[in-house]
Amino acid sequence: MSNDPIFHMIANGPQPVAPFSHAVEADGFIFMTGMMPDTPAEKGVLPDGIVAQTRNVMANLTTNLNGMGLGLEHVISVRAYLLEFKRDYDAFNATYAEYFPEGRRPARTCIGTTGLAYDALVEIDMVARRPATR
Q1: pTM metric for this prediction
Q2: Among 9, 32, 33, 51, which one is least packed by beta carbons within 10 Å?
Q3: Strand order in the sheet with 122-129
């Protein structure tokens, strides 16, 4: 078994906005690149509002996880970046909470920022862990 990292590009995943892999896997941990709120079909086209953009970001992250045989239940850590932190924090949290059941929520950091690609309102990256084989 190789300890070399695996660089994942998911065939049906979102188109990169910059030079990166969708995820890098090392020793069972998957470090997922921050995703934008566009869709794989419409690079750079964003819906209006934090709720719709959060849903698109989560859909992109889920697509990438699924492309590696994983799901949101494998996520152990999340970092979220909000362009309009004070305005959007409550609506973002309400939307985000729909994706993780209470009692099984990943560790999380949420940061206000001064700019995101495509002038997006939200970007989210994740760390997941592949289940141990028995």
Answers
A1: 0.93
A2: 9
A3: 6-8, 23-26, 29-35, 122-129, 75-82, 107-112
